[in-house]
């Protein structure tokens, strides 16, 4: 039995016990309780929002270079704490330590990126149709942000909101996933260490009810949400008043491998983007459409590579590629999608089961399903686990149609060495990101967001900060 950590809320610059009961957090590799954190109540949420509202009255006027200084310092503090932050991530959601460390390092860079952006918030001076007038367009922070995040990237998904909001001059209340509160607490320790003014960034842990209370709070100015489409819809119904929302929702991302693809690269890309983080990535490749000429070679090579992945406990074992999935719902969804595909005629080339040698923990073997058809769940619903469905196609037009045929519009992937195909697919795929001959659809300086059922609004890049700013037109009559 591991040591059970006691986490607390961070409100108005102080660590607080919550008013409610404690929430148990489990290690997905062992099932043991590893942390107890507040299941925060409406009162806890109200204290956090009120603190953020008070702090906004001064933070909004703090010189951007000073805001940048805090963000740079927090990025440095986070990089220095990466070992313990990464361990907190792995202990609660299972990704192997090197992946968790990479996540922390990327978040540290995000702090520095938005520190720089804070100093580049610019407006415009516009000519008027009448002499003696000047129009100034200024950008101002929106106010208090409610950030609600999932568990698959427990610190990065907080960071994209936190860094951009603080850079813009907003204050924030973060409600992390109930599966991964300790990683969030570690990030807030870094904010405390750099003496960010009290109330500028607040943390309330808890489950869905805590998120509901936060969204419903009338003093919130904007809701920034990342999570499932179902919760996104619930938030629409709960939010109080009229206010901006950003919704980064689920994906169901297709890969198209054309007859002109480099098959070595396509297999390597599919392996990485289907099984990294045990497939628990909103932009994971769920389904692949492969030209008939390459199809059998592609599925056989992908299955062989997937079989070679080491499944294990990413906290206590070395050289693990795929850890346990974070919760039992994901495990059961993998089983459901595989059973459904099997019953409709798919070939299970590898995986398709929990590993026999690991009776404890939420483990599921990397799974490649061949000969899939679009009616199979794996081809039109997000699995969010280490499962990929593959289907052959004969003409590219039908592959594009199938790729676009689901409600998801987050990211799509293409492998092709043919420039005409690359441009055609880049234009025709109806997704917020299209990655061609690579599977890293997001970079920090380019806008990242979904369309259709995958939501709206952008994170990353300058656009990621614009969502926390509002414009003001000041029209000055100066007579000269
Ligand atoms: P989830 O929707 O179950 O939970 C997300 C967060 O919402 C949690 O903090 C949860 O406590 C909170 N919540 C639950 N009910 C709520 C309510 N009624 N009101 C307010 N908050 C509420 O999602 P999850 O299982 O944690 O995460 C997986 C999902 O997130 C997947 O669908 C995945 O694709 C998506 N995701 C999307 C992106 C993206 O950038 N588009 C990134 C990562 C994950």
From TrEMBL:
<dbReference type="InterPro" id="IPR016161">
    <property type="entry name" value="Ald_DH/histidinol_DH"/>
</dbReference>
<dbReference type="InterPro" id="IPR016160">
    <property type="entry name" value="Ald_DH_CS_CYS"/>
</dbReference>
<protein>
    <submittedName>
        <fullName>NAD-dependent succinate-semialdehyde dehydrogenase</fullName>
    </submittedName>
</protein>
<feature type="domain" description="Aldehyde dehydrogenase">
    <location>
        <begin position="15"/>
        <end position="474"/>
    </location>
</feature>
<dbReference type="Pfam" id="PF00171">
    <property type="entry name" value="Aldedh"/>
</dbReference>
<dbReference type="InterPro" id="IPR016162">
    <property type="entry name" value="Ald_DH_N"/>
</dbReference>
<dbReference type="InterPro" id="IPR015590">
    <property type="entry name" value="Aldehyde_DH_dom"/>
</dbReference>
<dbReference type="InterPro" id="IPR016163">
    <property type="entry name" value="Ald_DH_C"/>
</dbReference>
<keyword id="KW-0560">Oxidoreductase</keyword>
<dbReference type="InterPro" id="IPR050740">
    <property type="entry name" value="Aldehyde_DH_Superfamily"/>
</dbReference>
